[in-house]
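Hi support team,

I've been running sequence recovery on a batch of backbones for a student project. Most finish fine, but this one hangs at about 90% for roughly twenty minutes before it completes. I'm not sure whether the input is malformed or the queue is just slow. I've pasted the structure tokens below so you can try to reproduce it. Let me know if you need the job ID as well.

Thanks,
M.K.
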């Protein structure tokens, strides 16, 4: 705000103007003197006006700088990449944006930082304070496979805020959901179509009256119905495990009785394949912190897979050993054909099969290792799959031991 001294030049000029009027009546000498003084006053007025405009511009610039500094401080702690622009240049970039686009981007033309045609085209348009917020989905910023939702908003004058939200994980999850529904539908449709075909055949008097054909078809129908039943049970089991993933189990579970129970439950499949179950207990303790039912299912899936995909007349080994002081490692190994390295990262995906025909022939649903992975995740454990083609496969599970009981006060 202007103080009293700011108006003194203006007041002096007004007095001199009055004196100039008097000089017109009093003589030329006085007139010349007054005109000289008046020139000085006018110069003072002009200088004061220029100073005022300079101060006004300085204040406006300080206000802009203050807004920019405040905006930079606000965006700094945010996780998503955010840019503050003015006239096409990057005034400020938070750490997430610098990590994505480069540490050098502040002060640069935004086109050099983003290098994405659709985004650059929208940013090249003139900014307007009342312009609506724009959102576009783009791919390829930072990495060819990453998908982004870019939000562009005008905030003051020529200033703009650009917010990049990484949509890669969300879109991948949606794609997995769609694939899961399609795969589940396919897995159910195939045996259902088989059963319906057999029913139509048996409804024909010429085929249905033949006891041998009827018996063979009924056996196939029973097998397909059991396959659908197993698939539905696996889907429901997977759903229950996922629903409990945020509530880790607290029950102490001894692994040795579980393995003994499985030896009995899987006795028939071991006998059919002429396999021998070998248990090697090399650890200092076999008790882990877990959910007994889920750990039984985990071990059963691993054991059945080892028998189905291992060679007949070979050993299936279950080894228990210490994994440091706080965990127990269980390794289930078969002596089979092994799995090529390119398949290993995808083995725990739902419905992923290395050999789809063989998997269906041995009664697999494609969900066994997906269930194992989710059980391990819920138990805060780790899963490692190793395989050598022509030798066999080993699956290692590490599970935490029970937490020590804290002594009372």
């Amino acid at each position: 705000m202007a103080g009293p001294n700011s108006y003194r030049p203006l007041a002096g000029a007004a007095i001199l103007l009055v004196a100039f009027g008097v000089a017109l009546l009093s003589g030329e000498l006085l007139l010349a003197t007054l005109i000289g003084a008046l020139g000085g006053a006018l110069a003072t007025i002009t200088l004061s006006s220029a100073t005022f405009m300079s101060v006004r511009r300085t204040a406006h610039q300080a206000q802009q700088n203050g807004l920019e500094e405040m905006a930079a401080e606000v965006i700094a702690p945010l996780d998503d990449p955010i840019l503050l622009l003015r006239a096409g240049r990057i005034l400020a970039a938070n750490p997430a944006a610098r990590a994505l686009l480069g540490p050098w981007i502040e002060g640069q033309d935004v086109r050099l930082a983003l290098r994405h045609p659709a985004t650059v085209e929208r940013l090249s348009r003139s900014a307007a304070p009342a312009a609506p917020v724009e959102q576009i989905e783009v791919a390829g910023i930072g990495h060819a496979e990453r998908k982004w939702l870019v939000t562009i908003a005008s905030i003051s004058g020529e200033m703009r805020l650009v917010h990049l939200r990484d949509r890669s994980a969300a879109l991948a999850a949606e794609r997995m959901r769609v694939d899961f529904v399609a795969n589940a539908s396919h897995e159910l449709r195939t045996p259902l179509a088989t059963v319906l075909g057999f029913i139509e055949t048996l409804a024909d008097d010429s085929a249905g009256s033949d006891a041998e054909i009827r018996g063979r078809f009924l056996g196939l129908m029973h097998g397909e119905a059991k396959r659908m039943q197993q698939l539905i049970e696996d889907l429901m089991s997977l759903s229950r495990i996922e629903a409990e993933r945020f509530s880790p189990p607290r029950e102490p579970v001894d692994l040795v009785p579980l393995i003994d129970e499985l030896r009995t439950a899987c006795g028939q499949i071991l006998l059919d394949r002429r396999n021998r179950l070998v248990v090697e207990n090399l650890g200092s303790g076999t008790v882990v912190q877990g959910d007994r039912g889920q750990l039984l299912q985990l071990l059963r899936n691993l054991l059945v897979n080892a028998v189905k995909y291992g060679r007949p007349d070979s050993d299936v080994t279950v080894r228990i050993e210490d994994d440091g002081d706080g965990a127990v490692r269980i390794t289930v190994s078969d002596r089979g054909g092994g799995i090529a390295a390119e398949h290993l990262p995808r083995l725990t995906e739902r419905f992923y099969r290395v050999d789809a025909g063989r998997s269906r022939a041995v009664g697999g649903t494609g969900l066994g290792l997906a269930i194992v992975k989710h059980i391990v995740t819920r138990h805060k454990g780790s899963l490692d799959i190793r395989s050598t083609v022509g030798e066999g496969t080993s699956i290692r599970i590490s599970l935490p031991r029970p937490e020590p009981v804290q002594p009372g006060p």
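--
Follow-up from support: It reproduced on our side and the slowdown came from queue contention, not your input. The chain has four domains: 4-73, 76-166, 172-243, 247-409. No action needed from you.
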